[in-house]
Amino acid sequence: MALAAGARRQQHETSTETKKTLLSIEKITKYFDEDLAVDNVTLDVRQGEIFALLGASGSGKSTLLRMMAGFENPTEGRILLEGEDITHQPPYQRQINMMFQSYALFPHMTVEQNLAFGLKQEKLAKDVIIDRVQRMLKLVHMEKFARRKPHQLSGGQRQRVALARSLAKQPKLLLLDEPMGALDKKLRTEMQLEVVDILENVGVTCVMVTHDQEEAMTMADRIAIMDQGFIQQIGSPVDVYESPNSRMVAEFIGSVNLFDGQIIDDQEDHMTLHTDELDADIYIGHGVTSSVDERSMLFALRPEKTLMTRERPEGDYNWSSGIVHDIAYLGGHTVYYVRLPQGKIVQCFLANVERRADRPTWDDPVYVHWASDSGVVLRS
Amino acid sequence: MKSGRFSLSVTIFWLGIFFLYGPMLMLIIYSFNASRMVQVWAGWSTRWYGELFQDQQLMSAVGRSLQIAFYSASTAVVIGMLASIVMIRFTRFRGRTLFSGMITAPLVMPDVIIGISMLLLFVAMAQSLGWPAQRGMLTIWIAHTTFCVAYSTVVISSRLREMDQSLEEAALDLGATPIKAFFLVTLPVISPAIISAWLLSFTLSLDDVVIASFVTGPGATTLPIEVFSQVKLGVTPKINALATIIIGVVSIIAFSSWILFRKIDQHNRAAARMAAQG
User: Fold this and answer.
1) Would you say A149 and B271 are in contact if contact means Cβ atoms under 8 Å apart?
2) Could you report the predicted ipTM of this complex, rounded to two decimals?
3) How many domains are there within chain B?
4) Could you report the per-residue pLDDT of A268-296, keeping only the tens digit for each?
5) Secondary-structure class of domain A10-95+171-251 per CATH
6) Contact criterion met (CB < 8 Å) for B172 and A149
7) CA A12 vs CA A47, A190, A220: distances in Å
8) What is the pLDDT of residues B40-75, one digit of tens each?
9) Does domain A256-379 have CATH number 2.40.50.140?
């Protein structure tokens, strides 16, 4: 699977470093009775960024989001919004708005009334409300549907209304709970880019929760990967994909080939690992600062960086022989499952740049190889 | 299904219909009987309808029953709603299971037991507190409210349980206080259940004879009690006429609400189709 690594994001990566912190989560822990849902999480969300909490169900990401919104009280820790402690503020006093997974549009109100609901609570003047509602409708291209009730809208339209409603009060922070969860696959891809456009337009800071890594990578500036209530890694989409810091992250984001190895040589500018699973040793083009007594390492290699040829690669490092075990043709690219001599199966993506090229087929002997800077070394 | 007009299922269908509606049909026909004797047919007449409206005692019983039913249903719906909110929204409090079990107990309790225990309570209260000084409409109202609360709670709590809780959270999130969120969002969303709970309570109160006859007092004869005592002296065609009117009113209400709901349903489906087409 090829992951879309933030189409619009690259230009932002340098600038976000300098931006100030909007929301601080400080050592937040949450127990539900005896069950630990969120485990000592600390993170900062910067002004203007889209921050994604990514994890499987039950990883605590939704609980964390609900604590930001004020629907759950943390057992321990503090939440600061622009330096102000909001840990125990009720949701109706926070300048934070949320778009719910089910959209939670009020069924007995029209689209207009839904959008005006939050503004009426602020006791704004009538003409201000009307004006703001019109702007919101325009923002999400729903002017024509102002008088409709939610059940008269399609899934995508409902999502637009929900987004507009959560933006209407001009919150300091917008929370999105599985924003694409209720849409079908095709609409989802469309809406991801559109929602990002709208959010950029408004310039709102946003925290989203998702279990879909493609969605997180497409939409977010930074991603926090959560597992069992704990944040495993925070970084840009490129960081978490290309430089995972643990086996869990490497396996969770995309596919990966993992090899257990022992350090043979660890220098300033390179290191070599020995593994029984490959014919040749692994050569890595940089040193790894490891404690002397820890010799056991994990080598992670992405399938699209694993190359496959019929001829034996040159050099003494970074290759192995194998046989084609299985082939999955996916149109854009083909996944080859290559069985190595010791029985391990590695994945290898080949982009189909030619139509009907002459490719290895089932049970053909092949070689897999990779460049010295393609993989990542992890502490096992 | 295809095996001709007199298949087994069709026969059973008509037998069932006759079983349900045969007695009512008899009643309607006999309400137009000219004869005073129920067993004798003496030709068509609307005489008993005229006499029915002359009968002051019966007419005031009708008024009283409607009044009691209205009050009981309204009180029961308010209490039932509060009980449902406590049961569904406040899931963690001591004795919740006991509470939800006990609130629906009157559903399975025989009327006689409810009636006799209410009577004992009222008598004891009158002796010790001096209130209620006399049994009458007030005591019937209280007694009817108690068992109607059980029915309302069942109807309203099932709707409240189905309701997407994030609707309330969305209201809070948009700046409404919990009280405002309840009146602006929760109440409108569960209003169909409140209406049906009210109608159910109203009907049950109107229908009750057992409990009412225990807790009633002088000058507070409800319609069912009145009918029951008149019938003991022999069925008069007046009662048939009254019953026919009640059947008519109920049918009209049921039919018109069916039409209304069907229209709303069709409207919604058309809207959904429109939405699907964009």
Assistant:
1) yes
2) 0.84
3) 1
4) 788 888 998 898 889 988 777 666 667 78
5) alpha beta
6) no
7) 12, 22, 11
8) 888 888 888 998 888 888 899 999 999 999 999 999
9) yes
